[in-house]
Each structure stands twice: as C-alpha cells, then as structure tokens.
Specification:
By secondary structure, the protein is mainly beta. It is built from two helices and 19 strands. Bound molecules: copper (II) ion. The site of copper (II) ion has 6 residues, from loops.
C-alpha cells in the first residue's frame, strides 16, 4: 500500500472514532386537575356499526383527554435548541381510519417524512389536512373503503397540524411535524421517551391541545435522564 492509501485508511478510522455522546430523555406527563367529561359522538348508522365492531362495548366520544394511572396521553414533547437534525425517519407515520376515528388521534413525524392514511372502514372518508403554516399545502382527497393509501408530507415544522374528514364532522387527528428527531408523544399513562439526544442542557417543552405548555430544563450526559412534567387541566 502506498502512502496515500495509508492516509486514506487513517482518516476513515479517525472519522468513525469521533462519536458524540448522547442519552435518552424519559419520564411521565402527570395530569393535574379533573378534565371535563368527554362528549358523546352522534355517529351515523354505518359509522356506529363500524365503531362497535372495532370497539366492542365502547362508546364513541371525543378524545380530548387520554389518561391512565394519573398520567396524560397525547402530549407532544420536544427538545429545543439541539444542534443538527438528528436521525432521519426510519419509516412512515401510519394513520388509520377505523370505526370512523383517526388512529392515532395525536401523533408526530419529521419534516419530509411520509404520512400514510388508510381507510379500514366500509364507508367513504375524505382526508382534509388544514395546515396553518405557509408552504404546507392544504389538500382534500376522497378515499373509498379499502381504497389506495393516501400519502402526505410537509416541508415545514407545524405543531398540531389538523386532519379532518368533511363527511364525518367529528373526525379529527393532529400531527406534530418537527424539523428534527428529538420529540415524542406521550402514551395514555403519560410515559414518553426521546432517544439519542446529544449531551447538553436543553429546554424541553410539553404541550397538550387543551392546556398551557410546560417547560423543563434537562441536562443530558449519556445514559438516561428522567424529566417528568405536570400538565394542569383547568
Ligand atoms: Cu370520515
């Protein structure tokens, strides 16, 4: 091997040896206060039957406050001020329509990531995202039962970007579009994890659609750091 080749090998080894230390932010969103009761949804007969089939024994209601074991779900948590965009998305964000509901109700994805929407109901839906950020296009597309999956994606960050169905006025979903990979949406018990955050001290923000945002200062230094939040529902 000549000198030039050795130099190339040496530089490759050096590059791969430089890794930035990172850690996970994990914790629980605690619910403080008593949310108002959810409202019953007046499903039409076709949707009522599909809802029953998909939710035996369940009642169709609004889904403003998902809560279990003192935790609050559907909270969007994001880390502010991280240098770089983090990891590229590893797949699509999949949204389904089942029982004339969007599932999941609240979700999150990265800018440019594909959002797929499918129709598992035996009825026609129309998917009508209504972004508020300039450059994120509004669309309005009909989707037959078992029709082809529809795809969406957004160039610009936007929190709680609304998807609605004009056929069924109770159908909503909210997608948080983020321009980095350091975010999560809490599960019903309030738990969440944000992976591989580079070491540093950051402001982490937790937002629920029906409450004031809550901030926490969090220092990541490898391994795992716990950051719990308390969201007050008035
Ligand atoms: Cu619909």
């Amino acid at each position: 091997m000549n000198t030039k080749s050795w130099l190339t090998v040496a530089s490759v080894v050096l590059t791969s040896a430089v890794t930035v230390s990172a850690g996970d932010i994990t914790g629980k969103i605690n619910l403080k206060g008593t949310p108002p009761p959810e409202r019953a949804l007046p499903l039409d007969p076709a949707c009522g039957a599909s809802f029953k089939k998909n939710n035996p024994g369940g009642k169709p209601t609004t889904r403003f406050f998902a809560s279990k074991d003192g935790g609050l779900g559907d909270v969007f948590i994001s880390v502010k001020g991280v240098k770089g965009k983090g990891k590229a998305p590893s797949g699509d964000l999949a949204i389904d329509q089942r029982g004339c509901e969007y599932l999941p109700y609240v979700s999150a994805c990265q800018t440019g990531q594909t959002i797929t929407v499918k129709n598992s109901d035996p009825v026609l839906h129309n998917i009508h995202p209504t972004p508020r950020v300039a450059g994120n296009p509004e669309k309005n597309l009909a989707q037959l039962p078992n029709g082809p999956v529809l795809k969406f994606s957004y160039k610009n960050a936007e929190e709680f970007l609304r998807f609605k169905c004009d056929v069924h006025p109770w159908m909503f979903a909210y997608v948080n579009v983020v321009d980095h990979s350091y975010f999560a949406v809490s599960a019903e018990d309030g738990s969440y994890t944000i992976k591989d955050v580079p070491d540093g001290t950051y402001t982490v923000v937790a937002k629920h659609r029906k409450a004031d945002p809550v901030e926490n200062k969090v220092t990541v230094k490898g391994g795992k750091v716990t950051a719990d939040f308390t969201v007050v529902i008035k």
